Each structure stands twice: as C-alpha cells, then as structure tokens.
Amino acid sequence: MLVGVDDSVGAIYKALNRTNQLEDTVILFQLDHGTAEKSMLWEGGIRIPQFIHYPNGNLPDTYDGLVSTIDIGPSMLDIAGILNDPIDPDSLYEMDGKSWWDAVDSGAWNDRCLFFEIFDDRALRCGCDKYMLLSSDSRELKNAVWYGWSGFEADQTEALFDLCDGTGLYIDANPSRSSPEAVNIAAEQPDKIFTYSALMKCHLNKTGAREATTVAPLYDECRLDELKSEYDALISGCCQWTTERYLWVFPNLFYLCALWAYTL
Known about the structure:
The protein has helices spanning about 1-20, 45, 70-80, 105, 140-145, 190-205, 225-240, 245, 255-264; strands spanning about 25-30, 50-55, 115-120, 120-125, 130-135, 160. The protein has about 260 residues and is of the alpha+beta class.
C-alpha cells in the first residue's frame, strides 16, 4: 500500500513538473494516525503531521497554530480565489472549517480552540491546554486508570493537561519521557476547568452533538473571548454584590470575576 501511494504521488509530481505546472499547484499530504491511540482522544489519535507544497504560495517552513482537517476545503477554495462570491455571498456551501491561508502568513490563530469527539467522549485544545469531558464508559479513562496515570480515578468525568509541560512549547512524543497526558492537573486548576467546561457546553449547544435535533447545527467556533462578552454584564455586577441575600442566589458569579481575570 505504501509503495503504491509513493509511486502514485511520485508520478503526479513528475507529470506536474514536466508540464510546468508544479510551481502553481498545491499538494497537500497528511498522515493517518497509525498509533496505538487511534480512534481515541489522546494526542496520538487526533494530532497528525500535514505537509503543504506550493512554491508560488510563499508559505513559511512551519506553522504552529491550530489547524484541522476540516480547514482543508475552505483553504483550497481560498487559494483558488473562490471562497466567497462578492455578487452572491450565499451561493456557496457553508463549510465547517476556515481557511488558514492568511493565518499561516500572519502567525494568527494562536488563541484558536479546536473540538474533538469520539463516541461519547469530548475534548478541546486551546493553546497548550487540553480539556477532556469523559463519559462513564470512556475508553480513555479506562486506559489512564489501567496505566496508573496521575490524577485519574475510575469515576473521573473531566481531565486537563498542559501539553507544553510548562515550557510554552508543544511537547512531542518521546519514548524516553512520560507524555504530558499522563498527568491530569484538573484538581489543581479549577478555574480552567470551569472555563473549558463552559466552552465545551457552548460547542455542544451549537452543534447539537449530544441530542438529535431538527435545528441545523452552527459550526462557527466557540471562543473564549466570545464567552467573555456574554458574561461581561454578569461579571461587572457580581463583584459589587456583597450581601448574603445575593450570594446564595448567584454563588458562582464571584468565581467568574476571578476566572476571567486569570484566563483572559
């Protein structure tokens, strides 16, 4: 199979070069997961290398922003100049992803969050943080408990990982070192758990991922700054309410005041 793919890609490459079309052709190549974590929400199951060859595009050598396979369609249309129709903007199909064409050049999307789901388990990745919402029958949870990873219990419902391990840079898989996902820091970061739980609920509400619905799902991304704007009115008032009369009604609003100061 690998030999066949290699021969076929090589034949296409040579044909483009022979016909002087190679410089103006976008070649996108990405790997399958191919690890023990395939069909699971661990990094080995959802993070893959993607390579772009487009000489006339003047793309950087590497890009560390968060992109997804759902961005491929919008990106290719954007490069081709047909992402939007100025005469009839509603004539094109609305796609789930978005184009990374401008982002890779400007270094944007560092604050983007991506969402993932496998069966009844959910995960999101924001920068160095990765949050997981685990079901009672979660294979990821059973996997972590079996390996004896830190911070996991049999009835765990949430997990949080620092994929940069405090360095600010993504930690690549290394057999000589434990994965950052082997340490669940949810108990140490209740403020982040609260934030990412709200962000996950935003995503589930928009997409209808948990319940059958006749309403068309919305795939515009849930963002931290979007949630902040929704809570701003509550936050501005909560820090001024100091009587017990209001505290028992809105016990979490004081928590939100500190939450946004920390996360944003």
